[in-house]
Amino acid sequence: MAIDVNAAFATEKTDQLNARRTAREQQIKAHTDRIAWLESEVAEGRMTQIAPNRYRVTQGWDAGETFTVNRNAAGHIAAIVADHGLDTTATGDVALYTAVPAWHSLGNHIPGGTSDITEVLRLGGINWQVEKRPVRYSFGGDLHVMGDQYVTLRDDTGAPLGVVGRKYTEIQNRRLFTFLEDLVARHGVIWQSAGAVRGGRRVFVSMRVPSNVTVDPGGIADEIALFIVAINSHDGSSSAQAVVTPWRPVCGNTERFAVRDAKYRWTIRHTSGALDRIDEARRTLGLTVRYADAFAAEETALARTDLALAEFHKVIADVWEPTGDDDSQRARNNEARRTEQLVAMFRAEEQRAGRTAYAAERAITDYLDHVAPKRPGKSMSEEIARATALVEGSDDALKTRAHRRLMTLVRR
């Protein structure tokens, strides 16, 4: 049978062209879908564009995280890369468990969450142990041991986490996090998230308390979700800690309880008495709901207190010490820029909450969480430093000072 090579060639090229056209159409569709998704997220206020191809998440537990949009030669979106700063497991997976899917769709998502701490540790990639080994070094062909210095390391990968002293006592992830299980059993709380950052040097687990806090029920009715977060450090840089933190879904800003006599953070040093301290934290965390009631009462009082713009300027001056004649021009410029940003955020917040002390507190909190300059460490970006500061409470003192200053206006 004779073969028409010209016809065969034409058929082959036609098939190739059709295949390329289909692939191109799929790329264009994927690009169009991603563009529509980005535009929708920005329009709904869930994300904000911070550079031509850079975006920041503004709401949810992922607030503060950023991502980069990579484009191909045609300008189409080829990939969306998350700057999540999360650790990876020995198998290369992202060390993250979530009950609600993270915006970057990474990690292990369990719809509705789980109450099983074993599963949380496994899915979060933090079900490994920490070991403490003597620091050894080679000199003159011999191996020497430093008697008072030790290296902490992961028993799954052998990766070093930090150098600690003789008195440092390891607090294993399971041991620290299990003290929250009392709340799980008593109140039906579901584990919200768990994971590791900085190569496992710091691990975290969070849970959401079932009942939200409602501020000013008959007015703005602002819903605030309540989280309990436990953080464990394995590099000797900080204590283990537990924190109660309200999160306001409408803007994603975070604050700590500032009501009188309400403990909102418990630190647990890595010493031989650490486990006793954990027992104390367990008892104290059982009072979380009472703290939430007190918090709601004070925030409602702020929401019902009118605040003039001039008074807001006085609050700013009390929270941040004003510059003087002896300060540099750079310091005065920074102060002017901060004040301008705070006033703009207060005006934006008053559109929803009125010109009130509550709007002022929201503006200050949002500024500290998402706008105030952060100095990142050597191993993190500014965005990761900002997200870490949210959990670790780097601005707690300023937030508490602002809250207490505004509460004086309620009582006058």
Shape: globular
- Give the integer mean of the pLDDT values: 77
The SSE string, one letter per element, is: HEEEEEEHEEEHHEEEEEEHHHHHHH
**Main sheet summary:** 8 strands, mixed
Would you identify the regions where 5 or more consecutive residues have pLDDT less than 50? 1-10
Can you count the helices? Answer: 11
Query: How many domains in all?
Result: 3
What fraction of the residues are assigned to beta strands by DSSP? 15-25%
Number of strands: 15
- Helix share of residues? 25-40%
- The SS-based structural class is alpha+beta
Radius of gyration: 26 Å
What does this structure look like?
The chain is of the alpha+beta class and 412 residues long. The chain folds into 3 domains: 5-83, no CATH class; 130-169, no CATH class; 209-412, no CATH class. Helices cover 39% and strands 24% of the residues. It has 11 helices and 15 strands. The protein has helices at residues 5-43, 117-123, 173-177, 181-187, 274-285, 288-303, 309-319, 329-353, 357-370, 382-392, 396-410, and strands spanning 47-51, 54-57, 66-71, 77-83, 96-98, 108-109, 130-139, 142-154, 160-165, 190-197, 202-208, 213-215, 222-233, 240-247, 265-268. The strands form 3 sheets. Strands 5, 6, 10, 11, 12, 13, 14 and 15 form an 8-stranded mixed beta sheet that branches. A hairpin with a 5-residue loop joins β3 and β4. The protein is globular and about 70 Å long. 35% of the residues are buried.
